[in-house]
UniProtKB/TrEMBL annotation:
Binds 1 zinc ion per subunit. Keywords: Hydrolase, Metal-binding, Metalloprotease, Protease, Zinc. The active site is at residue 186. CDD domains: ZnMc_astacin_like. SUPFAM superfamilies: Metalloproteases ('zincins'), catalytic domain. Residues 95-291 form the Peptidase M12A domain. One of its GO terms (molecular function) is metalloendopeptidase activity. Pfam families: Astacin. Zn(2+) binds at residues 185, 189, 195. Gene3D superfamilies: Collagenase (Catalytic Domain). This is Peptidase M12A domain-containing protein.
Length: 502
């Protein structure tokens, strides 16, 4: 059995390690070691999953000047190793004006370019780690073609990475013992995360037991402030569940904990997945870099065959979508946060289907593509922005609706502005798609309404969408005069129509 001594203190015998790996989380684990020295017993209670660049090596500890600050580092194999698995290369020292922190050197447009060396064993852990990052964060990972700045995954003697984007080729080194979880951790460094115990407020949550730390490793236990590095806290408290948190026994020289909670107790860490706060933290950290997508307004074609006319005003995103064969039509209103949109869609009676529900969407950072991340009862899942066709689906008869019911507005209405309004009411929610009557080409104007009905009053936000040529938006208050007529009470934004009937 080839043992991954990398994970554990090398002083422990191979035989003992084998037993440990088999009996992890088993009570027998302790029995196995009770006759051994107390030093080893304690170590084996906590599997050390902390990443190390050079697990079997001790480098010469030297002080270097980096980012204008003095840093204690270990020199190993021509690079400076900092906090165990953070690499500073001689090239980076040359570029001393570059930061490697959590507030600078982030990846522009949230795109991390990468390559994987063909000689790296078990590439699946890299694929899995990247898939994890893509599914849990806004970051995109794209295979490098000719980009100057990129992450290169390669075989190494431990697990290590630079912190943040260096601007050139930067290696993530992975020994055979580096798991998918360790790879997720190293990618965390590459996108700019410090270790969780490097928070400037960490002394509120943990004690660092310097007496138990291996000689020359003290520098691994400083906060980013103590090291003079840039950084920020993106979660309110120290997160013991963070994939970036060191375990209680990291760099222990004697099997006693190097980090404990304030009450002296030890704790476990995980290397499985980004924690809830890791995900929120990365989202906050990257908001500055990728926080605003360009205005999305325009025409999108989706993989459900539909035409979508999107209007983006501030953080509000509206659309009207319709299939050219008239089988369905819907409106949507959502809020944009970063590049995520959360909102609701309602089918309207320009089609025949009567669905509604929540949608969660992700927009790419040039607003050319939208992908659905949640909304199982909605057909489309990918929208691509393109030139608006010259000929769009014309006016239709209602696919569903009622008349003579003052409590249900669902119907096709006709207004004195020459428009047909496909209104849908669901509970107190009232939505519509309205467009100037036309038979070919496209309408003079088209708009989406989204609001509520209280008694016989209807309060709406309205916004023109890119099916027509108008570009207004505002509010509307309407009043039901009877079951089949309503009139305008108040308006902002220059809305034409003032009376409706069905
Ligand atoms: Zn690390």
């Amino acid at each position: 059995m080839k043992l991954k001594t990398f994970w554990l203190k090398s002083r422990i015998s191979t035989l003992v390690l084998g037993a440990l790996l088999i009996f992890t989380n088993c009570e027998k684990e302790n029995e196995l070691f009770t006759e051994e020295t107390s030093e080893e017993i304690i170590v084996t209670q906590e599997k050390d999953i902390t990443e190390k660049a050079f697990p079997d090596k001790k480098g010469k500890v030297t002080e270097i000047t980096y980012q204008g600050q003095q840093l204690m580092v270990e020199e190993m194999d021509g690079v400076y190793v900092f906090e165990g698995d953070i690499l500073i290369t001689p090239e980076e020292l040359q570029n001393a004006n570059k930061s490697t922190g959590r507030t600078q050197n982030l990846w522009p447009n949230c795109i991390v370019y990468y390559s994987i060396e063909s000689s790296l064993p078990n590439k699946q852990r890299v694929y899995d780690a990247i898939a994890h990052w893509k599914s849990k964060t806004n970051l995109q990972f794209i295979k490098r073609t000719n980009q100057t700045a990129y992450v290169n995954f390669r075989k190494g003697s431990g697990c290590s990475s630079s912190v943040g984007r260096t601007g050139g080729k930067q290696n993530i080194n992975l020994a055979d013992g580096c798991s998918t979880g360790n790879t997720i951790h190293e990618i965390g460094h590459a996108i700019g995360l410090w270790h969780e115990q490097s928070r400037k407020d960490r002394n509120t949550y943990v004690n660092i037991n310097f007496a138990n730390i291996q000689a020359g490793k003290d520098h691994n236990f400083k906060t980013y402030v103590q090291r003079g590095e840039d950084g920020d806290e993106y979660s309110p408290t120290l997160d013991f569940g963070s994939i970036m948190m060191y375990g209680s026994y990291a760099f222990s020289k004697n099997g006693m904990p190097t980090i404990t909670k304030k009450d002296g107790s030890t704790y476990s860490v995980q290397r499985t997945a980004l924690s809830a706060w890791d995900k929120i933290g990365v989202s906050r950290m990257y908001k500055k870099v990728c926080g605003t997508v360009p205005n999305m307004s325009g025409y999108y074609k989706a993989n459900d065959g539909g035409h979508y006319y999107v209007r983006h005003i501030g953080i509000d995103v509206y659309w009207f979508g319709e299939h050219p064969n008239g089988s369905w039509a819907n409106i949507f209103k959502g809020k944009l946060d970063g590049n995520k949109i959360t909102g609701n869609f309602y089918d309207v009676p320009k089609g025949k289907i009567q669905g509604s529900g929540q949608l969660k969407l992700t927009v790419n950072y040039n607003s050319t593509k939208i992908t659905k991340t949640q909304g199982s009862n909605f057909g489309g899942s990918v929208w691509n922005k393109m030139a608006r066709p010259s000929s769009l689906p014309g006016t239709r008869t209602a696919g569903f609706g009622v008349r003579n019911n003052i409590n249900n507005l669902t119907a096709r209405w006709y207004a004195n502005d020459g428009g047909y309004y496909y209104v849908r009411q669901v509970g107190s929610r009232v939505v519509w798609f309205g467009e100037r009557h036309f038979t070919s080409g496209r309408p003079a104007w088209a708009n989406v309404g989204y609001g509520i009905k209280i008694g016989n009053n209807i309060y709406l936000n309205w916004a023109d969408v890119a099916k027509g040529n108008a570009n207004g938006n505002g509010t509307l208050q309407l009043k039901m005069n009877g079951a089949n007529t309503m009139t305008r009470v108040a308006v902002t934004g220059g809305f034409g129509g003032s009376s409706w009937s069905r």
